[in-house]
Write a structure and sequence with these properties.
By secondary structure, the protein is an alpha+beta fold. 52% of the residues lie in helices and 16% in strands. The chain has a single domain, classed as Glutaredoxin, CATH 3.40.30.10. The chain contains 5 helices and 4 strands. 33% of the residues are buried. Keywords: 2Fe-2S, Iron, Iron-sulfur, Metal-binding, Redox-active center.
């Protein structure tokens, strides 16, 4: 399976995926930490991928998403954006609404 296929599978199988440096418990950069924190603040059940532990995903994800930096948040298979966009959506209340909609659909 190609790296692009692996990325596609991850974003297809998990309603919320955060590609980040480190893990939600041990983030390895401030931007990844902030993105994970706002997801937790929304009580989001999300899958995280540590791009530092998977150099192929780290190299290929920017090509897949057409987004150069990390973290990258995908919701329902669609790129939402990086840290700034994620935090902005959180501050506007939109991120919580998106998370709640997904979790209602999963019930």
């Amino acid at each position: 399976m190609s790296v692009q296929d692996r990325i596609q599978t991850l974003v297809s199988e998990h309603p919320i995926v955060l590609f980040m440096k480190g893990t939600p418990q041990f983030p390895m950069c401030g931007f990844s930490s902030r993105a994970a924190e706002v997801l937790k603040a929304c009580n989001a059940q999300f899958h995280s991928v540590n791009v530092l532990a998977d150099p192929e995903v780290r190299a290929q994800l920017p090509r897949y998403s057409n987004w150069p930096t990390f973290p990258q948040l995908f919701i329902n298979g669609e790129l939402i954006g990086g840290c700034d966009i994620t935090v902005e959506l959180f501050e506007q209340g939109q991120l919580k609404a998106m998370v709640e909609e997904i979790q209602r659909g999963a019930e």
